[in-house]
Specification:
By secondary structure, this protein is α/β, with parallel strands linked by helices. The protein folds into 2 domains: 2-148 and 354-419, no CATH class; 152-348. The protein contains 11 helices and 23 strands. Helix 1 (2-18) packs antiparallel against helix 11 (367-382) and helix 7 (264-270) packs parallel to helix 8 (296-303). The longest helix is centred in the N-terminal third of the chain and has 17 residues, at 2-18. It is globular.
Length: 431
């Protein structure tokens, strides 16, 4: 039945592509899920190619991208999950998309807000790592379809002398992000680390990864926190670190320390820079230790598991709460493709840092956008589905065998044996 629906959706989509007038659609939201949207659009089912993108090694890691199929185009700006919900719920016209004619490939210096911004467009639909109800924008109620599972991990930055942080529990996370820093010995338990400092780094409030981490650890999904940022860097090193400056994102102001990086990919790159001689504030140069949260894909960039060689060296994965060290830290991992252990931990409930991925749209979605949206949802829900039945539900209480695995083969490893009903909610068995 499901495969028939998928085939029908594909045929409808093909008809819309070849017979209807050309269209340009605008999508936004989750940067953690951008690689999966990119792969779906470029699959044989949809047939798009990436015409241009910015700030990424490829369009699947880009902040912005333009996809083309004949005369039809889909333009993506990956603002973060919460930003995606806001854009759709408020019909915002200030999302900075690339112009439809953009053909650059990975320009790291381009600022879409000033160099190639094409504002004035309302997002046709979006993707989000979090439930709308958990965001600051719970109304109007948007149409939502669960299409995947997002895996996240905790990462410690590269320091040439070694970063001693190997684990982080919820109590430590709450203390660290509340103050923005803490004595390193409170995490390592080593007397030799007394007097050294560990700092919190992270994403801005538009990020679903941030909301998921804060909800999971009990910091509070929408809590005001203190995070640091690398304000001065070279191609290989961090030389100056400060609290994140005050900022405004989509008309919402955030005070000093409460902001963060707008992209997980950018943050991953910063964590690869050597921080062995960094000034923090007005302090003297010295080793600066950071810990942060990233999607599975961005964490692979940070630790070099995807072949990334930028910066000075590989960041390191951190054992998070009660996750199995073998599943989360990969002490013998040599490639970016061996993620079965992490998948197993998520499927069976021992790695708690995960969320559902949602596709969302508003009530006024156009017919062309609805066709593409439905086809994408069907494709993602059917991906890896061997039984022919997708059990993804609005509450997440199904077995989730048929939903698309974000950033690693979660569902390809088998069925989800657990579920949760909210971001950071209790993980329960499906049995």
């Amino acid at each position: 039945m499901k495969k028939s629906i998928l085939l029908l959706a594909s045929l409808v989509f093909a008809a819309a592509s070849t017979k209807a007038s050309a269209f340009t659609l605008y999508i936004t939201g989750s940067s953690a899920f951008r690689g999966q949207v990119d792969a779906a659009l470029k699959s044989g089912t949809f047939g798009y190619t990436s015409q241009g993108w910015t700030k990424g090694a490829n369009s699947g890691k880009a902040n912005n991208a333009v996809y083309v199929n004949g005369s039809n185009k889909i333009i993506a700006h990956w603002s973060g999950s919460v930003g995606g919900i806001q854009a759709v719920a408020q019909n915002r016209t200030d999302v900075p998309y690339l112009v439809p004619t953009y053909t650059g490939t990975g320009d790291a210096t381009l600022n879409p807000d000033t160099d190639a911004a094409d504002t004035g467009h309302i997002a046709d639909f979006a993707f989000t790592d979090v439930y709308q109800s958990a965001s600051p924008y719970p109304t109007p109620l948007l149409t939502s379809d669960i299409v995947g599972i997002n895996a996240f991990r905790v990462v410690a930055n590269y320091v040439s002398g070694g970063n001693p942080v190997t684990h982080l529990n919820y109590q430590q996370a709450r203390a660290l992000w509340s103050a923005g820093k803490m004595d390193l010995s409170q995490i390592t338990g080593l007397n030799s680390d007394k007097g050294k400092t560990i700092y919190a780094m992270g994403r801005d409030p538009d990020s679903g990864t941030r909301l998921t981490f804060f909800a999971e650890t009990g910091i509070g999904a929408l809590s005001v926190v203190n995070q640091y940022t690398a304000t001065t860097t070279t191609s290989t090193a961090i030389t100056q670190v400060d609290l994140v400056p005050a900022s405004t994102v989509y008309g919402v102001g955030f005070g000093i320390g409460n902001g963060g990086y707008s992209s997980g990919g950018t943050l991953a790159g910063v964590l690869r820079l050597d921080a062995s001689a960094a000034h923090v504030g007005s302090g003297s140069a010295g080793q600066a230790y950071f810990v942060s949260y990233l999607s599975r894909g961005d964490s692979d960039t940070a630790i070099g598991a995807d072949g990334t060689t930028s910066g000075s060296g590989n960041a390191s994965l951190v054992q998070f709460e009660n996750s199995d060290v073998a599943a989360n830290v990969y002490p013998t991992q040599t490639t970016g493709n061996d993620h079965n252990n992490l998948a197993f931990e998520i499927q069976n409930g021992s790695h708690p840092f995960w969320s559902y991925e949602h596709a969302i749209h508003g009530a006024s979605i156009s017919s062309n956008a609805q066709t593409v949206y439905t086809a994408l949802v069907n494709y993602m829900q059917d991906y890896h589905n061997t039984s022919g039945n997708s059990n993804a539900t609005a509450t997440g209480t199904g077995t989730a065998n048929g939903i698309y695995a974000a950033d690693g083969g979660v569902t390809s490893y088998g069925t989800m044996n657990v579920y949760r009903s909210s971001d950071g909610g209790t993980i329960l068995s499906t049995n």
